[in-house]
Write a structure and sequence with these properties.
With 332 residues, the protein is α/β, with parallel strands linked by helices. 33% of the residues lie in helices and 16% in strands. The protein has 2 domains: 136 residues, Rossmann fold; 166 residues, Rossmann fold, CATH 3.40.50.2000. Strand 5, helix 4 and strand 6 form a beta-alpha-beta unit.
Length: 332
C-alpha cells in the first residue's frame, strides 16, 4: 500500500450547486494524497455530480430530506463504520454534525466549530466563515489537512470549441426551490424579451433548460420572434455533462442563480447571472469570469434569502430587472 494512501469519506448534503462548490476541497485532498480513495455521501438528487469529475471514487446516497431522515443518518453511520475510512470531513453548521462524525468511529474527523461539543469530538473544529465565496467556505474544512489551495471547481470536461457570436441562455431554477417559495429569477416574459433584443442585435441565441423548466420554456417559446439566429436546444441535453459541454461551447452564458451557474464557472465560460434575494458575493467568485446582474432597488433587507428569511417576499423588487438592462450588460 502506498504511504500516501488515505481512504477518505466526505459528507456534503445539498443541491448539485453545493456539490460543485465542494469540489475544490476534494481536489485539494487528491493533490495531497494522489493515491487516495474518496467517497462522497450526498443527497440522491445531487448524484449526477459524479458524472462531472473523476475525483470521486464512490457515492453513498443519504436522503436527509425524506420522511426517514434519522434512519438514513444511521445508515450513513453503519456504512462509515464498515468502510475502513481514515478521515471523515463534513460540511454543515448543525451542532449535531460532530456527534454524527464521532459515531462513525473514524479516527480523524473534521467539521465546523459549532461550540464546545464539536471541539471535544472532532480532530479539528474549523471556524465557519459564511461571509465568503462558498468554495472558500468549504475549502476551510481541509486547511488543517493540506496546504494545497484550489480556488475554483474543475470538472472532467475538456475546453470546447466556441460557437462564434453565441449566447446561451438557461433561465431555470430547481423545482424544489420554486415549491418552497424561493423565487430567484426573472419572469419568462422578461427572458423572452431579452432573447428578442439579443437576436435584433445580431447575436446567435441558444435556449436550454432541464425537466424542471418546461413551463418557463413554453412561455418563452411562445414569445420569441422567428429568427434564423435562434436555436431551441431545450430537451437536447440529457445529462449534467451534456449541459457542461454546451456551456463550454457558448461564448457567453446567461442564467439564474442555480446549478448551471456553477457548472459555467467550472467551464470558465463568461457568465452573466441574475441575482435577486440571494447574495452574489457568496455564490460567485471575485473575478471577471462572472458578472452579477441585479436590480437597482432600495430594499433594505437585500439580500434576504437565507440571511433573513427562508422564502422570498411578495414584492420581489430585487428581481425587477428589465430585459434592456440584461442585454446591455451582456453586450458591453
Amino acid at each position: 500500500m502506498e504511504k500516501d494512501f488515505k481512504n477518505i469519506l466526505a459528507i456534503n448534503f445539498g443541491g448539485i450547486g453545493d456539490e460543485i462548490f465542494f469540489l475544490p476541497s476534494l481536489i485539494s485532498l487528491k493533490k495531497e494524497f494522489p493515491n487516495s480513495k474518496i467517497t462522497l455521501a450526498l443527497e440522491p438528487r445531487s448524484k449526477s455530480v459524479k458524472d462531472l469529475t473523476n475525483i470521486i471514487d464512490d457515492l453513498i446516497l443519504i436522503d436527509v430530506k425524506g420522511k426517514n431522515k434519522y434512519f438514513e443518518l444511521l445508515k450513513l453511520v453503519r456504512k462509515a463504520r464498515a468502510g475502513n475510512f481514515d478521515i471523515v470531513i463534513s460540511s454543515g453548521g448543525n451542532k449535531l454534525i460532530s456527534v454524527l462524525l464521532y459515531m462513525t468511529k473514524i479516527k480523524e474527523r473534521y467539521g465546523y466549530d459549532t461550540g464546545d461539543l464539536s471541539r471535544k469530538l472532532l480532530t479539528k473544529a474549523v471556524p465557519l466563515n459564511k461571509n465568503q465565496y462558498a468554495c472558500k467556505m468549504y475549502h476551510d474544512l481541509v486547511s488543517a489537512i493540506t496546504d494545497c489551495k484550489t480556488e475554483l471547481p474543475a470538472i472532467n470536461v475538456p475546453p470546447q470549441e466556441k460557437i462564434p457570436n453565441s449566447i446561451l441562455i438557461h433561465p431555470g431554477v430547481s423545482r424544489l426551490s420554486v415549491q418552497k417559495g424561493m423565487i430567484k429569477t426573472i419572469t419568462p416574459e422578461i427572458w423572452a424579451e431579452t432573447i428578442n433584443i439579443l437576436l435584433s442585435r445580431g447575436k446567435k441565441v441558444i435556449l436550454a433548460g432541464g425537466p424542471d423548466d418546461s413551463e418557463c420554456i413554453k412561455i418563452i417559446l411562445e414569445k420569441v420572434q422567428n429568427n434564423e439566429l435562434f436555436e431551441n436546444y431545450y430537451g437536447k441535453t440529457k445529462s449534467l455533462k451534456d449541459l457542461a459541454i454546451l456551456i463550454g461551447k457558448a461564448e457567453k452564458f446567461i442564467c439564474s442563480d442555480s446549478a448551471p451557474l456553477h457548472v459555467a464557472v467550472a467551464m470558465r465560460t463568461k457568465t452573466y447571472a441574475i441575482f435577486g434575494p440571494t447574495d452574489d458575493k457568496k455564490l460567485i467568485p471575485q473575478s471577471n469570469l462572472v458578472t452579477a446582474i441585479k436590480a437597482n432597488d432600495t430594499c433594505p433587507l437585500k439580500p434576504c434569502l437565507w440571511e433573513r428569511r427562508q422564502t422570498t417576499c411578495k414584492s420581489l423588487d430585487c428581481l425587477k430587472i428589465s430585459s434592456e438592462t440584461i442585454a446591455n450588460a451582456v453586450l458591453l
